[in-house]
Amino acid sequence: MASPLPPSPVGVHVRAPAKINLALKVGAPRPDGYHPLATVYHAVSLYDDVHAEWAEPDEFELAVSGEGVEDVPVDDTNLALRAARLLARVHGGQDRLGVRLTIRKAIPVAAGLAGGSADGAAALLACATLWDIDLAPEVLRHLGAELGSDVPFALLGGTAVGGGRGEDVAPALARGSYHWVLAFGHQGLSTPEVYRRFDQLVPDPTPPEVPPDLMNALRGGDPYELGAALTNDLQPAALTLRPALRRVLDTGLELGAVGAVVSGSGPTCAFLVEDEEDAVDLVVALSAEGIARKVLRATGPVVGARVVG
Ligand code: ATP
User: What Pfam families does the record point to (predicted)?
Assistant: First the structure.
């Protein structure tokens, strides 16, 4: 039960990572409209920050700054606000609790990196800490699944297998740390639109399964094997909606990446490289090509949403 007095007047700061999908296998839509997935999530070192401060009972406020802020809703559809309200309703008594949330975004919006889910996960953890609601990690993840399929993974982090519609997560047996280069698109891609295109392109998909070669590569920790095993069933759909992404993927591979894949529903392209030096080189070379809005380096796996400071 929530404490009636503000336990933390200065507020709580939580940082949550972006994800890429090392594998994303998609089945035929279920009766509830969701697609069954077999995915391997991988949390990378690109973070949104969420700060939560005590507010008057039943006051839920939000301010957003940073990357892509003009495309982030600040009303009740924002996943961070939805997370705060959900937690208050289920575990605290909405009329007794309030929060002022501030999001600083570094994860681009509608980029296939689950930035909104990262904010939802961060807000859940920040509010639980602020309001002194003590929940086991699996209970928090269960709550996160009500907000969105990628939220439980944003709480868990690391490298994990996702089943169901992606919300059913379990840590993967994985060795090593990997260097990534992320190339952001000029415009976001709508996830529902990419799934609609997938349904047209693949009217009769096989039931999704996590590829064994990818799991073997993760156990071995070899970037070359992992690079060869990266796979995304949504990639052809994303490429028909954004044909220019083909050139981005090809150019990254020509410039030395050991693997390339569209992340989730896109349009972000993720390139795996051998080491940090290659990552620095690829960022410079890809940026010089002028085919991506922004090119960044990241490492993975990193931990999920955590209280910092
Ligand atoms: P999805 O998680 O749907 O696969 P994505 O990872 O490509 O999508 P997100 O950055 O999560 O992209 O944004 C998807 C949509 O979610 C946005 O277009 C926006 O309308 C909505 N949204 C809600 N809350 C947020 C938030 N805190 N940050 C970004 N987008 C949000």
Answer: GHMP_kinases_C, GHMP_kinases_N
Q: Is 294 a catalytic residue?
A: no
Render pLDDT for 145-203 as a digit per residue (tens, 0 to 9).
999 999 999 999 999 999 999 999 999 999 999 999 999 999 999 999 999 999 999 99
Is position 105 annotated as part of the catalytic site?
Answer: no
* 0.90 surpassed by pTM: yes
- DSSP-derived letter for residue 157 is B
Check residue 185 and report its DSSP letter.
Answer: -
What residues contact 258, with CB distance under 8 A and at least 6 apart?
223, 224, 226, 227, 228, 272, 273, 274
**Residue that is written with structure tokens 């002028």 in the block:** 290
Tell me how far CA of residue 154 lies from CA of 20, 256, 287, in angstroms.
11, 30, 28
Binding-site annotation, residues: 108-118
Torsional sign, CA 92, 94, 100, 106: positive
How many helices (H) and strands (E) are present in the chain, helices listed first? Answer: 10, 12
Distance separating alpha carbons of residues 4 and 97, to the nearest angstrom: 8
Query: Which amino acid is it at 18?
Result: A
Strand ranges inside the chain, DSSP E: 12-26, 37-54, 60-66, 99-105, 159-163, 168-171, 178-184, 231-232, 259-262, 269-273, 294-300, 306-308
The answer to whether 69 touches 42, Cβ cutoff 8 Å, is no
- Residue of 119, 150, 233, 278 with catalytic role: 150
Angstrom distance (rounded) from CA 135 to CA 139 = 6
CA-proximal residue: ligand 1, atom 10 (nearest): 109
Written as six digits, the tokens of 100 are 């002022």
